[in-house]
Write a structure and sequence with these properties.
This protein is an alpha+beta fold. The protein has one helix at residues 37-49; strands at 3-15, 21-31, 54-64. It has a three-stranded antiparallel beta sheet, with helices on one face.
Length: 67
């Protein structure tokens, strides 16, 4: 059973002309599937401090092959 893991960092990019929030994602593919959630969170927070925009969320996506 093969596992693929993706880490998504969600950033707040400000507001548009209508006052609506603008959000953008940065995705990292080929993350080691055995990585612990706490390690991925620490890495995401460290990467977030290097960005211009505010980090508002971190999402881990795992997908498995069933056959």
């Amino acid at each position: 059973m093969m596992q693929q893991t993706r880490l998504t960092l969600q950033f707040h990019h400000g507001v548009d002309v209508f006052g609506e929030n603008i959000f953008k994602d940065k995705r990292f593919n080929n993350i080691k599937g055995t990585s612990l959630d706490v390690d991925l969170e620490e890495t995401a927070l460290a990467l977030g401090t290097l960005q211009k925009h505010s980090l508002i969320g971190v999402v881990r996506n795992n997908s498995y092959s069933l056959a």
